[in-house]
From TrEMBL, chain A:
Source organism: Arenibacter algicola
Protein name: ABC transport system ATP-binding protein
UniProt KW keywords: ATP-binding, Hydrolase, Nucleotide-binding, Translocase, Transport
Limits of the ABC transporter domain: 2-233
Keyword Phosphoprotein attributed: no
TrEMBL record, chain B:
Organism: Arenibacter echinorum
Membrane topology: Multi-pass membrane protein
Subcellular localization, as worded in the UniProt entry: Cell membrane
KW Membrane (keyword) present: yes
Name of the protein this chain belongs to: Putative ABC transport system permease protein
Length: 233, 419
């Protein structure tokens, strides 16, 4: 599903440049649930941004579902993001003047899905995250866990190939964290490929594979036995 | 472009901060209001001045003789000459597109001695020998009786049409003038009509004190033979006397054996040229109104642009989210530009409507308090409103363009990092 070869990325900081990713080789199969771990500054967010086509790589190659991702202009990148990727952010990033349903329907709107179908789909995904009766509420009327569940529904609505989650539980207490992880695991069980950036070991343990990043290189890449989040809920 | 979701979003954004939206809109509102009011005021002034010209046929010139300045065909320079009736016939025949060619003769009245006598009353009045056409060139309203007609000309009848001013000088109040006789330089004329001329210039009093008699009677009574004192010549509506006058001069020069280059021999006053000069003034005024109005509008538009920049800044993160979700940058740009155009047009419409109200009120007060000199019926045409609308759309586009550009300039990743 995802294939990365010899990936380099550096940021220019004034006169000297900061080499963040120093040759990453990494691939993800369909249906995997991968945790990317590492201390801050290890380059895990940068990696996720490049995977999410929010940032461009300097060297190396990136293939997503057989499509080489390079030299994208903004229009093309937007199209690919819409088609291939779903994002879940630490700070939820819901649009605060739109209701939960409208937020979920947004990626479908960019796919030019008709109004009615959009609403039906959005309600279906809200149902899946258990927030159907909150469809007409604004994000400000939802709790943190609910917001993140709306965000996950939004990420899933476009039926992406890969779900990218950047510290999805970073702003939540542990109980809600486990609820969200339970949801993510269920989505994964349905066959979706998911990448999670986290620095919390217990969250990482709920994935099927852990990739450790340190100073821009992968130091450890192991498959683990998944801890089910449902037992904590 | 016309989809429901986009409009919903535009309204959501603009109504999320009412106070700011209204303040911003006020700049554009004010600009377009000033533009409309200035144009209407200019139009009012123009209407006022035009009504001052009254019904005078403006496509008219007056022509008289001045004496030659170049010797020609054995005739000396400085020769005095007079127009003859043959000149009038030649002009009518050779120059096309002329509506009226009226030969005129005049007995000086003002500054002169008393020349008109009725019983024991006397007065000094201008006496004109005229053809019936003159009433079309120098309009007057006949208050009683009739004006000179063709039969008077042919029969050389000694009849006269007198001004209301003459009537007050020579008649008692309430006395019937029609059918009475007045003596002009010793010759008796029967009064067949009275007139009043409209003017609100300084000569309003003077022009009521004129007497019109048939041209032929004038020639016979005052020994003018076939002399013509001066001429009033009006061109057809679709041609201009200013262009035709050289042809007329050429005919006259040929007839009177005047050197073709002698520009001084024939004097003239071109009313059309004067009128156009005044019209040119209004054109200039209209440009000034546009200039000032558009500049004021521009400051309003800059206000819109400014606010849109702030809105974009505030929404940077949201724009980042939308782009992460896969919104096309062009769609974001279009959104910002449409917000700006919508805001501009809405406030502009309000400005136009309010301007119309102001114009209506001014007209209402003018109508109820009577006319004011040099100002009448201020108005703007539909064309002006359309032009204003076009200006609004263009300025809305301009106002939205820079903010829209800045909205998609930020990379989605940077936008997402913003807190």
């Amino acid at each position: 599903m995802i294939e990365i070869k010899d990936l380099h990325k550096s940021y220019k900081m004034g006169s000297n440049s900061l080499h963040v990713l120093k040759g990453i080789n990494f691939s993800v199969e369909e249906g995997e649930l991968v945790a990317i771990m590492g201390s801050s500054g290890s380059g895990k967010s940068t990696l996720l941004n490049i995977l999410g086509m929010l940032d461009v790589l300097d060297e190396g190659s990136y293939t997503l579902d057989g499509v080489p991702i390079k030299d994208l202009n903004e229009t093309k990148a937007a199209q690919y993001r819409n088609k291939f990727l779903g994002f879940v952010f630490q700070s939820f990033n819901l649009i605060n003047y739109k209701s939960a349903m409208e937020n979920v329907a947004l990626p479908l709107y960019y796919q030019k899905v008709g109004r009615k179908e959009r609403q039906e789909k959005a309600l279906k995904y809200l149902e899946q995250v258990g927030l159907r009766e909150w469809a007409d509420h604004l994000p400000s009327e939802l709790s943190g866990g609910q917001k993140q569940r709306v965000a996950i529904a939004r990420a899933m609505a476009a039926e992406p190939k890969v779900l990218l989650a950047d510290e999805p539980t970073g702003a939540l207490d542990s109980t809600t964290s486990y609820e969200v992880m339970d949801l993510i695991q269920k989505i994964n069980d349905a066959g979706n490929t998911i990448l999670i950036v986290t620095h919390e070991p217990d969250i990482a343990d709920m994935c099927k594979r852990i990739v450790h990043l340190k100073d821009g290189v992968i130091v450890e890449d192991k498959k683990i036995t998944q801890v089910r989040a449902s037992q904590y809920v | 472009m016309f989809n429901k979701d986009r409009w919903k979003e535009i309204l959501e954004v603009l109504t999320s901060n009412w106070f700011r939206t209204i303040l911003t809109a006020f700049g554009v509102f004010w600009g377009i209001l000033i533009l409309i009011v200035l144009l209407a005021a200019g139009k009012g002034l123009e209407n006022g001045i035009r009504s001052n010209f009254g019904d005078i046929a403006t496509n008219t010139m007056f022509m008289w003789t001045q004496g030659t300045s170049i010797a020609y065909k054995g005739l000396p320079k400085g020769r005095r000459f007079t127009f003859k009736l043959e000149d009038v016939a030649a002009i009518k025949q050779k120059v096309p597109d002329l509506r009226f060619v009226s030969p005129r003769n005049q007995l000086g009245g003002f500054n002169g001695t008393n020349n008109v006598v009725r019983g024991i009353k006397t007065g000094a009045f201008n006496v004109y020998g005229d053809y019936p056409d003159i009433i079309n060139q120098d309009p007057m309203s006949i208050t009683s009786g009739r004006f000179i007609n063709q039969l008077d000309i042919e029969g050389k009848r000694k009849v006269a049409v007198i001004g209301e001013g003459v009537r007050t000088s020579l008649y008692d109040v309430g006395e019937e003038a029609i059918g009475t006789y007045i003596k002009i330089q010793g010759v008796n004329f029967m009064v067949v009509g009275t007139y009043r001329k409209n003017s609100n210039d300084g000569n309003a009093e003077e022009i009521q004190k004129e007497i019109f008699i048939p041209f032929t009677s004038f020639s016979q009574a005052f020994n003018q033979a076939n002399n013509v004192g001066w001429m009033a010549i009006t061109a057809n509506d679709n041609s201009s006397i200013t262009q035709l006058k050289e042809q007329i001069f050429t005919v006259v020069r040929e007839n009177q054996k005047i050197h073709p280059q002698d520009l001084r021999a024939v004097g003239h006053f071109d009313l059309f040229e004067e009128f156009n000069r005044v019209l040119g003034l209004f054109k200039a005024m209209r440009w000034i109104a546009y200039f000032v109005g558009v500049l004021v509008l521009l400051s309003g538009v800059i206000g819109v642009s400014n606010i849109m920049l702030i809105v974009v800044k505030e929404r940077t993160k949201e724009i980042g989210i939308r782009r992460a979700l896969g919104e096309n940058p062009w769609s974001i740009k279009l959104q910002i530009i449409m917000e700006s155009i919508f805001l501009t047009i809405m406030s502009g419409m309000a400005g136009i409507s309010f301007g119309a109200l102001v114009i209506y009120l001014v007209n209402y007060f003018l109508a109820s308090n009577g006319p004011i000199e040099m100002f009448a019926n201020p108005s703007v045409s539909l064309g002006v409103v359309l032009v204003a609308l076009i200006i609004l759309v263009v300025s809305g586009l301009l106002a939205g363009f820079i903010p829209a550009q800045s909205a998609i300039k930020v990379k989605p990743i940077e936008a997402l990092r913003m807190e």
